[in-house]
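Each lists sequence, tokenised fold; shown next:
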Amino acid sequence: MNLDYAVGKLETSADWATLAGVLGGAHQRPVQSIIRHLITVGAKSYLVESRYIDRDYSADYRRFYAQTFRTYDRHCERVHFFQEDVGNILALPSWSERVAALQRTSKRSYLGFCVVRPLPSAPIGRTALLQAGPTGASLESVVTCRADVRANLLGAELDVSSASFMQQDSRVGACAQVAIWIGARHMHQRHKYNWLSVADITRMAAPTTAYQATSLPAGSEFLTPDHMIHAIHEMGFQPLYIDGAGKDIAADILPYVESGLPVILGLRVDRSLGHAVTVVGRVFASKSTPTNQLAEYVPAYIVHDDQAGPYMLLPRTDQSAKAHNFDNNQLVRHRFSTTNPIDLNVEQHAVFGVALMPMRVFATARAAERTAVGRLEFAIANMASIRAKLADQGASINDRLLDELIEAHKNKKIVLRTYLTSASGYRKHITQGTACDDLKDVLARMHLPHFTWITEISTVDSYNQASPGMRRMYGHSILDATSTGKDEAGLLALHLPGVLIRRDVDKDKEIVTVIKDDTLYHCREKKGP
């Protein structure tokens, strides 16, 4: 049996309608969302692999579909997308020339793939499309939960920077299972955690109550937060539960999203059963009236919604979408128990979040930031004595920048941004960034634990910039993420303009170093795959 494939162009509305049919039909909202996303990223053609064996579908097939009375096909199709006419490549005379030409599209024009399952009610299987979010005046979109996903196509190896997506099939897994799968698949692709299927997650959730066992397989229609937490723990992660009471959840989940850690967000209207989405990124917007609250610079989160599609938008408030002219077709919208669909937002409808945390992290973002704030305030309160001690040593520090920071603190214009990173990731950012050489020389030599919480210290004026290349920080703190984070014993360093305060955790003493020629430097931005 030879490999079977077909090629199609994407030039006219009829071409796009044909593609919608290949993906399962334009009546499916995830298909509509995928089409819209492909138009946004500039797709010009596609290639369909027939009789494709997908590992995720095969796992579900063995657990469920192979045991049903109805006969299900065990093969899928896989559709690949390109920013050029791939038909020209496949018209080359020899197979080796085609493979070589296809390989060159990996960085040049490959946009990813979509597995189409033989399930009429839920055709969209494992999907990896080039990550992208909304753009516009004063807007910046970052898909923080992204990784290189590789596809082998006709002998060529093609990579795409993506956050993996899948549509719900309620017979095997409900929205919670698929939301967890999206997060777990990112951790597998990016950090080499275990590969898990939706069927695996349903089994690990292990429903034990009568309420949970009203569907077969047990729990396949819905999961409570308790069973989600159990499943995530069994998968090898630390599930960190974030309560949605009040309006703080938009701010509480932000450090984890900035860290590139998936957050499962539970949404509900009134007392409805609810829905779960996976937060994979955020949208930044500069403000005409800036504030010192970081979450207010985030008008929306980028989410994968298994019932609506990849790279959807969940606004922070009920006014965010209109204020920033977001595409209504890209908003998270569901009916629940209401007659008309409701546009959801974080403040009004998020009832809980669960972050997939690495096992070696013991400090939460909130504890890390509180410790950083306490040490910053102590340093500013005692800055006169610090300056005097340095003067006695014949050293001077950058008075202008330090005075600006002290003034901003006095006027409540300090902006803090906290995220988790590895020691290698931190060193890469510092050494390749725009900090002065004197600071780089000291920080690059510091012995660090595998995971650290970084809290960047900016002011309203230095952070409120539409372009990420314009956002600057005055300093930052480094906290040992393997500590509790609740006391200063875990705070490894605090950099302020002209001075670096380091703690020797074994000897419990502080070392103060003057940083010559200190200046403002770039905030960290997640770049690359």
In short: The mean pLDDT is 89. The chain has 18 helices and 24 strands.
